[in-house]
Design brief:
With about 270 residues, the protein is of the alpha+beta class. Helices cover about 35% and strands about 15% of the residues. It starts with a helix and ends with a helix.
Length: about 270
Amino acid sequence: MEEMKLGDKSKFAPYVAYLKTQNPGQLPVNWSEPGKKLLRKAFRPGSDVVDWIDRYYMKDISETSCINDDPFEIHMIEMTIQRCFDTALIPIWDMVNHDNGRINTENSSMYDKDGLKVRSSRPIKSGEEIFATYDKCVDCEDISDEEGTPEILRDFGFVESYPHRWIFEDTNELDADIWFEIKQDDKNETSVEWWFDEATGAHEVPNLKELLFLSKELNRVTEVGKALNMTDAAYTGDMPMREWYMISQYQKAAEQALRLALRDADRVNP
């Protein structure tokens, strides 16, 4: 925040100038109130998707408070979460897009003696876009075990391309976490991959209790889609179109993932 306030006087002035071109509201936590309200309905009850700044950073609300209810400070937190790698903002590297299906780079730790180094992980053609991963990274200790497509939307502001990862954490309704990915091949055929337990050497397909939970969640997400009528024709203009589009994308991805998961589980355990 201090460097942003310094502006041209900051020793990071060129990077600060770039950051100042980034508009507020790229993450759901800083969306319009109608957008937040709609997204809450699409996410599981209790999710912090639009409330994490209030819960974890806002003074007088959070025990770990560090900011006031000020648009500038809120935007700084939003932008730092969106653009940082572990605990640092890294110019240029933070402009590389995320795509776990087309990732073509690999990198060393930013804590290495010689600093972070990025290299290609496979031959890259001229004009081909460079991709990184935001959740299978070296310094974030591969949070793909714990976070997936919903968290990418929460922390980076978009619904990622395939693969889509879904993690339903252990609650009173579950005996263990449910983890699966929806993948898509070159022919646009989708498939489900369940968590692989290295100890047993087998994929963890949900048991009956877990399947009932997934079925219940599918019903909830489907009803949300019907109630919201997430189509361009139904757009009323009470929120930015980008917010409407992202909510629609997310609801459709969640509904598709749950349908495919239940169908695959039935195939594996008829």
